[in-house]
Amino acid sequence: MRLVVVGGVAAGTKAASRARRVDPGMEITVYQEEPEPSISECGLPYLLSGMVEGRDRLVARTPEKFAEQDIEVRVRHRVEKIHPATKKLSVRDLLTGEAFEDSYDRLVIATGARAVLPPIPGADLDGIFGLRFLTDADRIMAYVGDRSPKKAVVVGGGYIGLEVAENLCRIGMEVSLIEGEDRVALGYGPEVSEKVEAELERNGVHIFTGERVEGFVGDGRVRGVEFGGGKIEAELVILGVGVKPSVGLAQEAGAKIGPTGAIRVDGRMKTSLPDVWAAGDCVETVNLVSGGPAWVPLGDTANQMGRVAGTNAAGPAGEQVLEFPGVLGTGIFKVYDLGVAKTGLSEKEAAEAGFEPASASVDARDRAGYYPGAEKVFLKLIADADTGRLLGAEAAGSGADKLVDICATALWGGLSYPDLVNIDLAYSPPYGPALSPVIQAATILAGRFDRAREGVRAAE
Amino acid sequence: MRLVVVGGVAAGTKAASRARRVDPGMEITVYQEEPEPSISECGLPYLLSGMVEGRDRLVARTPEKFAEQDIEVRVRHRVEKIHPATKKLSVRDLLTGEAFEDSYDRLVIATGARAVLPPIPGADLDGIFGLRFLTDADRIMAYVGDRSPKKAVVVGGGYIGLEVAENLCRIGMEVSLIEGEDRVALGYGPEVSEKVEAELERNGVHIFTGERVEGFVGDGRVRGVEFGGGKIEAELVILGVGVKPSVGLAQEAGAKIGPTGAIRVDGRMKTSLPDVWAAGDCVETVNLVSGGPAWVPLGDTANQMGRVAGTNAAGPAGEQVLEFPGVLGTGIFKVYDLGVAKTGLSEKEAAEAGFEPASASVDARDRAGYYPGAEKVFLKLIADADTGRLLGAEAAGSGADKLVDICATALWGGLSYPDLVNIDLAYSPPYGPALSPVIQAATILAGRFDRAREGVRAAE
After folding, report:
1. Which domains are assigned to chain B?
2. Which of A283, B191, B276, B380 fits a disulfide with B107 by CB distance 3.0 to 4.6 angstroms?
């Protein structure tokens, strides 16, 4: 039995390792285009500032380590075609240029996602980079080493753009961030976006929102960015305008693609092709709150999907297999001292999904007020006005990660706001106010719902 | 309509405030023996070291503040008798010694808990204190100011004893902690107890476990503590050997007392007496994991119970009222840099409750391994071997509060270990490893359960 995995970052390597545990005798090969497998891509922004010291720290496992587990990892190899009828693969060695054929009994596609480079004039100038792979970081750092750019522009105010802006600013560059929409961090409500912008500006990052980049100018190398009728100087540009699932290989082989543009899989991470599974940033899953399709290219989810795909791809056919239930849309990032996290749906997303959202916010502290060092944290809970069911939460400030993880677990358990009013969380003065901000916000929601019901009763 | 609340700390003041919100016209009086109401008792250990600066910071609300809400708070008054048949109260003004009668339409008993002073010879010497009320802290601090004790002994290795040991050590005292059982923090498994002892010892606290105090010796003032056939010097002794519910008043009035020794209430916090509710450290509730009775004297629970009791006591009879569902047994404390938390049942408690517990532990980090400043955290999950249902969790280290709050929410939602394998928590390098320690531990449990099932199948 031979398992081939296409793609060797989070989902692919996890699938291979899991398959090895399930079936010690299986032949397992991983093909990977980039020169290293098993990269912690979420750490890339921190490499730029040196906060993460040394690129090798982001290589979680080398091919030699995989070999010890009897998993063959072939880097600098591109799988160019899948032939599902014959279970053959066309592969190219990117170092020698040589093409050859391989075959599989079971296949896992983990081709990930790729940076979207916008069709902006001048986007091919030197000094303009995406940041998706470790090799991108290598190229950026080499360019910074050679050219010592003083002024940088980051295009895009999503997670990566925001993290890159901080990290370039930390090493002394003058950084401007340009976002086409009217605020950064669009997955969140406006209160959170405002805090993120304020935190970056407080630390010296210039923020331009509602501005579309019209062009990059330069003389071979980038010198400036044009937008809003004007121009700012830039010796380095990072494009953080988004990623797209890499589905070409799967699509060409006939695998079904979902409405999000990612590969459609069933609950067992199986594609529409026989004996082909897929996992990670290239697949579509379900948002468990909205019930709709979701594409969430995040490292932790990729790991979890890889575990399920690898287990199932290695298991004897017809055996009990693992299910991947879907996601909540949980995410987190940090800009300077501000932690920002969300789970489930924002108010806007909830309305789009057909709910009538009600929300309650609190400006709380991460410790008892009298305990030294207490810092601020904002929390918003979003619930369905009809049923009281929790739909989402977002937080910004100290301990945002904890509050959002509590709410993510509550979403996973299908809890409603009255559950959160009485929930028994851990309290001690160094760890929060006597009643957690989650309980505080739920209690406000309870008051609103009670008043709304009284209003209905009074009107009857 | 007249509401009287007996006891003005967390549950009592919360009940009064909630009643006022529900019924703006109600007459509300709170009687309180201690000189201040609304004390944050959980902050008392930190007052000793000056980490909390100034006793007044622990007074959440003064009687004047309550008066603004039209709530009369009468401090230094003891309710000596409840006459449920006539709805009268015998009250004594502790300043004048005068006795008088009051009456109620609705009554909330929130008499709290009291420190248990063990029957040890010499326990009445000067310099030996319990720590339950703000006035206890006042007396301790006055004694420390007058006598400048250099050597202190703390008796009891529960939450309060451990926190007091740290805080006395912080102000330069040589502190010994004596615990009768063979380890401190008995509500936890032995791994956690070991970490707590190591953290205290690393910071200079001497720990004696498995040692019963045989006597206190001195000349009016305490000079030493005898145990294990020997004696250590002590110029200050804090007894942290536990608390008991204060139920005398309720019991004498005929209220039913539960098996834990605390007042029995129904889900609406109503006692067995007509128009009498009770809340806080004096009542018994349900452990939602074991289904058995639970007595949990903690400030956050008292607040939540007070909210329910106050709302119901103020509501028109027969109206829809709030329920307090019970507790999980969640708790947290800190010794120096070590956060320690638990929720649900420990393995021992689970076995006692009739479960067959299975557990999995991980030694994880609070950040991605490559992100600077990563610190250790230990997590143990306890599940029912029969059904896979989560029964409890305990954690020690950085971010223990977050991990236990996730698990508490999972318990509240009745989740099982497979839920936790796939749960969508917030990941970014500054906030944890790619897979949360909760997911890591659940995955180990999953592997064990799978192997156990395979074992059963193989044997069949």
Report:
1. 2-34+76-113+244-314 (3.50.50.60), 117-241 (3.50.50.60), 338-459 (3.30.390.30)
2. B276
* Distance (Å) of CA A171 to CA A150, A165, A199, B15, B366: 10, 10, 17, 54, 25
Asked if B11 and B303 touch (Cβ cutoff 8 Å), the reply is yes
In this prediction, residue A459 carries a pLDDT of 58
Residue B39's alpha-carbon distances to A50, A134, A193, B137, B249, in angstroms, are 47, 55, 37, 12, 21
Pure H helices in B85-240: 134-147, 159-170, 190-202
**CB of A370 less than 8 A from some CB of B:** yes
Please report residues of A whose CB lies closer than 8 A to that of B301. 424
Q: How far is B93 from chain A (nearest CA, A)?
A: 31
Q: Residue B86, Cβ neighbours under 10 Å: how many?
A: 9
What is the tally of helices (H) and strands (E) in chain A?
12, 26
Whether B130 and chain A come into contact, CB under 8 Å, resolves to: no
What does pTM read for this prediction? 0.96
Task: Please give the structure tokens belonging to residue A228.
Answer: 């809003």
HSE-up of B43 (CA within 13 Å, CB side)? 29
The whole-number pLDDT of residue B456 equals 59
Contact B321, B354 (CB under 8 A): no
Flag if B426 and A330 touch (Cβ within 8 Å). yes
Chain A to chain B Cβ contacts (< 8 Å): 209
Closest CA to A452 of A395, A383, A376, A394: A383
Could you report the predicted ipTM of this complex, rounded to two decimals? Answer: 0.95
Angle at B4 between CA B3 and CA B7, to 5 degrees: 140
Q: Which of A40, A370, A414 lies at the smallest CB-CB distance from B40? A: A370
Q: Which residues pair with B231 in a beta bridge?
A: B226
**pLDDT given at position A245:** 97
Residue B374, chain A, CB below 8 Å: the answer is no
> How much of chain A exceeds pLDDT 90, in percent?
91
Mean pLDDT of B379-403: 96
Contact A293, A258 (CB under 8 A): yes
Question: Do residue A370 and residue B10 have CB atoms under 8 angstroms apart?
Answer: no
* DSSP run (H or E) holding A414: none
Cβ separation B401–A431 shorter than 8 A: yes
A121: closest CA of chain B, how far (Å): 33
Q: Does A24 touch chain B (CB under 8 A)?
A: no
**Residue B320, pLDDT above cutoff 80:** no
Q: Is B42 labeled as catalytic in the residue annotation?
A: yes
Please tell me the predicted confidence (pLDDT) of residue B30: 98
Question: Residue B254 region, left (φ>0) first, then alpha (ψ -120 to 50), else beta?
Answer: left
Crossing angle between the packed helical segments A10-22 and A299-314, to the nearest 10 degrees: 30
DSSP one-letter code for B58 = G
C-beta atoms of A42 and B404 within 8 A = no
Going across the sheet that includes A283-286, the strands are A263-264, A283-286, A293-294
Q: By the CB < 8 Å criterion, does A156 face chain B?
A: no
For the segment B437-452, the average pLDDT, to the nearest whole number, is 89
Amino acid at A394: E
Q: Of the listed B42, B169, B282, B407, which one is catalytic? A: B42
Min CA distance, B225 vs chain A (Å)?
30
Q: What does the alpha-carbon distance between residue B122 and residue B216 come to, in Å, rounded to a whole number?
A: 5
